[in-house]
Design brief:
Helices cover 38% and strands 26% of the residues. The chain is of the alpha+beta class.
């Protein structure tokens, strides 16, 4: 193989200093029992700067997954834990990619593990998101919980039971990431409470609209474990799912305001900025330095007193920029110590993404500040090419539109919001975009998740009343949308 195509030889010092910007391909000299080999890394899968690097590569003619432990202080301990977890899975006859090589990287002995790469495999999360059929989803969940039941029967528990930690092939499911394996009770049946808690962690990763699939999957799991299907078991599982979702949401919504693998965050005396890392490039940096320079009369989608919305193109991506204006000195004093509406919109957009509710993808948040005091703020999201529901259903072409299907999209959205106890605060028809037969919810700065059910019911009731006002004087639309609200109330009386 041409060495130029394989890339330069690098060492652990380069990998630590490169941070997230590890250039591929590259070569590594690795050593085991005094013998040296060469590993060619072709694709970075995951990088935690100065801690861990995972990549695809080739070693001795085999396709491998390489795990490098770059932490200067805990690398050997983390590597040992990974090996222990993999060995526990193997001894319990749980399918996991074979560990082919254990060695070190020169010159400082950085530990490295090489696993056989499972070709033509995808993780269960990706497979789930690609699946559009409920029968296929049932089958996928059944296969997954069967593997988890096998682990629990062997006394194995995955502390990070994430759908991406399972690889799916046509016939098999492989468990990966041995570092998350708790084998403290190996050889014994995992207790009921721990099993339910672990299983709840899996189901909590599904969007709430898929909760109707959980009872069937739990029955498969219970039959595998030899458990009777008791009502109290189901109730405890549901409670675990809710608890895990709450924890997951809380953790994630903290992460969207700080530097991490998904976001770039910069905080100075004069501004606060957080940006989706996939969009953070030279063009985006220039735009965020002076967003007003790209907002002019030609780009305006809305020019209001309190907010301005413009369509811009940055780095080849079309984006909608919503600038929250400061009207006067009194308004400035009123807003300066409160989270900006851009801050709230950013959080709510990510909250909706966790629920699988369509909203334009949030790209960046920018607040102009003077120390702790906030001023103008900007919320940047993807631009969705669509028509708002008001103009769609009030246009001359409305007669040819499948209004029943549009109302059904609204019904599904209402069920998702109600299930999460979320009120929007402004259900004007212009705040709904219809694009590619999907319904997108926009204008999120008044959206709120309610802790108390009675407050939610009041706020959600006001949302539904505002929704129906959009169709005043339109008998057919009023009937169709009223039918959706009636069905929601009949099937979920706790919502209304």
């Amino acid at each position: 193989m041409d060495h130029l195509k394989m890339g330069p030889i690098v060492d652990c010092r380069y990998l630590r200093s490169a941070g997230r910007d590890v250039a591929v391909p590259f070569r590594l000299n690795i050593t085991c029992d005094g013998r040296s080999n060469e590993l060619v890394c072709s694709m970075v899968l995951r990088v935690l700067p100065e801690k861990r690097l995972v990549c695809f590569g080739e070693w001795n003619g085999e396709q491998v997954v390489a795990k490098l432990f770059l932490d200067r202080h805990g690398a050997k301990r983390r590597c040992s834990r990974e090996k222990k977890g993999v060995n526990a899975l193997r001894d319990a006859d749980v399918q996991t990619p074979p560990l082919l090589f254990t060695g070190v990287l020169q010159p400082d002995g950085t530990p490295i593990l090489l696993f056989r790469r499972i070709l033509d495999a995808k993780n269960v999360m990706d497979a789930w998101e690609e699946t559009k059929d409920d029968d296929r989803r049932r089958e996928l969940l059944a296969r997954l919980v069967t593997v988890i039941a096998h682990q629990h029967e062997a006394g194995i528990k995955q502390d990070d039971l994430h759908l991406r930690n399972f690889l799916l092939t046509g016939r098999d499911i492989y468990t990966i990431d041995g570092a998350t394996i708790d084998a403290g009770q190996i050889g014994k049946l995992l207790p009921e409470a721990k099993s339910l808690r672990n299983l709840g962690q899996v189901f909590a990763q599904l969007y709430p609209r898929f909760d109707f699939l959980v009872p069937g999957a739990f029955q498969v799991y219970a039959e595998k474990r030899g458990w009777p299907i008791r009502h109290d078991l189901k109730a405890r599982l549901i409670k675990e799912v809710r608890n895990r979702r709450n924890c997951r949401r809380s953790d994630y919504l903290k992460k969207v305001y700080r530097e991490c693998s998904a976001f770039v965050c910069q905080r100075t005396w004069g501004s606060f900025m957080v940006c989706n890392r996939d969009f953070h490039n030279e063009a985006m940096t220039g735009f965020l330095a002076d967003p007003d320079s790209m907002i002019d009369e030609r780009s305006l989608l809305k020019d209001g007193n309190t907010s301005t919305v413009a369509l811009v193109e940055v780095g080849g991506h079309r984006m909608a920029v919503k600038r929250y204006n400061i009207k006067n000195t009194r308004h400035a004093f009123k807003r300066c110590l409160r989270p900006s509406r851009a801050w709230v919109s950013w959080r709510n957009a990510h909250r909706l993404s966790l629920l699988g509710i369509r909203t334009p993808m949030p790209i960046a948040l920018l607040e102009k500040r003077w120390g702790p005091f906030r001023s103008k703020a900007y919320f940047i999201a993807e631009y969705v090419e669509g028509v708002d529901a008001y103009h769609l259903l009030h246009s001359d072409e409305a007669e040819g539109i499948d209004k029943e299907n549009v109302a059904k999209l609204f019904g599904e959205l209402l069920r998702s919001l109600a299930g999460a106890h979320i009120s929007h605060g402004d259900f004007k028809a212009t705040n709904f975009l219809v694009a590619d037969k999907e319904l997108f919810l926009v204008d999120l700065d008044a959206m709120r998740e309610h802790r108390f059910r009675w407050r939610f019911r009041l706020a959600f009731g006001r949302d539904c009343e505002r929704l129906m006002k959009n169709w005043q004087g339109m008998t057919e639309l009023t009937r169709i949308f009223r039918a959706q609200l009636t069905a929601l109330k009949r099937n979920h009386p706790e919502f209304l």
